[in-house]
Amino acid sequence: xxxxxxxxxxxxxxxxxxxxxxxxxxxxxxxxxxxxxxxxxxxxxxxxxxxxxxxxxxxxxxxxxxxxxxxxxxxxxxxxxxxxxxxxxxxxxxxxxxxxxxxxxxxxxxxxxxxxxxxxxxxxxxxxxxxxxxxxxxxxxxxxxxxxxxxxxxxxxxxxxxxxxxxxxxxxxxxxxxxxxxxxxxxxxxxxxxxxxxxxxxxxxxxxxxxxxxxxxxxxxxxxxxxxxxxxxxxxxxxxxxxxxxxxxxxxxxxxxxxxxxxxxxxxxxxxxxxxxxxxxxxxxxxxxxxxxxxxx
DNA sequence: AACCGAAGCAACCGCCCACGA
DNA sequence: ATCGTGGGCGGTTGCTTCGGT
Length: 297
Prior knowledge:
Elements: H1 20-25, H2 32-45, H3 49-54, H4 61-78, H5 98-106, H6 114-143, H7 152-163, H8 181-188, H9 199-202, H10 208-213, H11 226-230, E1 256-260, E2 266-270, H12 285-288
Antiparallel strand pairs: 1-2
Helix pairs in contact: 5-6, 6-8
The structure holds a DNA duplex (21 and 21 nucleotides).
């Protein structure tokens, strides 16, 4: 005997898997726009889930919090963005995939579908994040006790950092040279800095050669190369100047214009090729370091 | 078919802050 | 000014479901 299946035979009841059309209509799922808005709001408000929830009609704080922890956090991590600070991740684990990312970023700019553009933008962000990590590792090597003793090749950069620590901020100075060391250090002290693997763990420091060796194979289309990074040899006190490092933009989604349309929906416009490193585009440290030991501005 | 791991979700717990006595 | 209380909020945990082997 047994009872018959609940819905069999009932008029108008469809059984079976959801169709794509039904999926779209199904309530509860976060839309792309909502996703972007959450990221944007999180960059501004942090873990103020209740505040974020007030901007998302029909969503509870717990709902958003869960969605963040299970989806968006991983998504940002995958993009090389620290989901806590909305800044590039500071561990060096991304370096392994850097060449491909840089290549992808080099190809960025082509027209495509909205989805495609977003993906390419993500790739660019990853590349930029990795680029920033290179700088962090470099400065860390120069400024921490992890390096037992400055090797000859290190002297130049140590000297330039010391010489340029006069305190001028130089941020966004549009071409004026002179690095603000404290700013550089501050950049490197962003959270997670302590999680950076000591550069000397895997390979004893022996000057810039080791550091530059880390970059071998990199540089496709991004002005990065071990040669340019090397700045080997030369006398100390060389006229090395680098552009100041502007802090990365607080959050990628800041480049999105998100509006609550008042109807329970949210519309977001993503500006193309936005990057948390737009401010870092002027970072010519990599480009300015020449192989003659003198790094020109 | 059973087992295992991952993912998603709801609920619980503890902390913090505002407010009143 | 201080202490107690209640509410709100965020972090964490545990249960359930799903997919893979």
